[in-house]
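ASSEMBLY PREDICTION REQUEST
Request ID: AP-0331
Submitted by: J.K., bench scientist
Number of chains: two
Total residues: 561
Priority: normal
Notes: Please return the full assembly, not individual chains.
Input sequences:
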Amino acid sequence: MDITINKQMVQKDKKNQEFTPVFNINNLNLWYGQDHALKDIKFDIPEKQVTAIIGPSGCGKSTFIKTLNRMVEMVPIVRMSGEIVYRDKNIFDPKYGVEELRTQVGMVFQKPNPFPKSIYDNVAYGPRIHGIKNKKVLDEVVEKSLRGAAIWDEVKDRLNENAYGLSGGQQQRLCIARCLAIEPDVILMDEPTSALDPISTLKVEELVQELKKDYSIVIVTHNMQQAARISDRTAFFLNGEVVEYTDTSTLFSNPSDKRTEDYITGRFG
Amino acid sequence: MGLINKESVKKRMGSRIAANGLAKFLFILATGFSLLVLGVLIYRILSQGLPYLSFDFITNFASRMPERAGIWAALLGTIWIMAVTAPVSFILGVGTAIYLEEYAKKNAFTKFVQVNISNLAGVPSIVFGLLGLTIFVRLAGLGSSVLAGGLTMSLLILPVIVVASQEAIRTVPREIREASFGMGATKWQTIRRIVFPAALPGILTGTILALSRAVGETAPLLVLGALAYVAFVPENLLSQFTVLPIQLYNWTSRPQEDFHMLAASGIIILLIILLIMNSIAVLIRNKFHKRF
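STATUS: Completed
Returned structure:
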């Protein structure tokens, strides 16, 4: 495929805010067998901002976020067309391997999914699979990542204990630390707080605010208040289409589409 | 409301509770029957075998004179056979399981292979003996050697190990594989560092249980031509050999009463070996038990 996107391309949205995109999504279509799950998706994801994706269950938001690191291809019956450009590279280009893409685009999952290993080994997993063996470097990466995920103080005295001994909220922050350890560019979060209690949710939300200084974050959430609290831009998905995509304050205070308004005021979904 | 007749509910209450009690009684009966048979078996073996059990019994070779007969050759033969069977069946079995679970496409052919593996687990062991006789003893020219015996035993327990390993691999949750792939790990890294370690307790348990089945097998090795009377220990993989169950079979088929007692002593040794192997399996399962 021919790619003619300038790295420095700067776009303007309705409020004339400028941003550098990390992802350009063009005419993305996706089918699960006969089921047309994503229809002509077209939008750009900004650098070092939090982009929230909201919408009712089954609208394709989880499917969409999983196309960004091609995790969606683990479903055998999936077919796709269109293109997703990540910083000048078409991610579907056979020359650009999924392993390379996923090193740049990390993911935090809905359910905390630590490995059945020690806390240290969980965080060191990423660097290790990329060939880093030096114990001193690993130690530093582990500490930096755990600090980055705001969990260092809670676990620094038990790094060698099994990660399953942590609470659900701690496990999720450990998973975020594990993701930070490969020093990604983008972090995808697929409903990261849906399995957590309110206090743990708050901690993760604060963490997201902290992380956006260094990372571009895409977050799928069921919780509209959460999207309003933590995101800079919000996309509203419905039946596999992007109904509206703009900065968060505009979308929640002054939506331009009737369906967005109905959804955020709780009339359906 | 009013759709349920309270009277008839009350009337049936008694019989429902009686049926509940009866079910419990039947299950206790079934368990009790097995325990009774096991108890009789153990009592018989201990009462017959214990008097003959001694250090000499373990370190002596077989003999025509019961008071000098021992199981040294058979014991070492069993250990030699296991030394061949364990690594061969583990490597082939786990490799097959990983291929089938992680790499093979789910289609009609793999389904066919799957059904056949499960069927092989139920094929009588003597059939594997004939297979081993044809392939290892005759075609490969190994003779009735430790190597031929060990390889035949590997074939016998391979299906069990494959099925047990597949089940262990299947219990590794999809979420932690996704976590690994999500960080840019390759398939092989994910298998080696995540799936295999998480499945290992289940794989080892299945392997050890399969091996303990092989320890007790007689038929395939008899077909291969394992000797019934051996007055030497195997020196290398091509030595001739005997194993514990064959020695026991030989003793029990003799007319003299004394040899029957010796067989009972041998059974005690065999049971101890099996008990140790099964305990190791339980220990591994408990030590590595992880909740997902």
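REVIEWER COMMENTS: The mean pLDDT of chain B is 90.
SIGN-OFF: pending second reviewer
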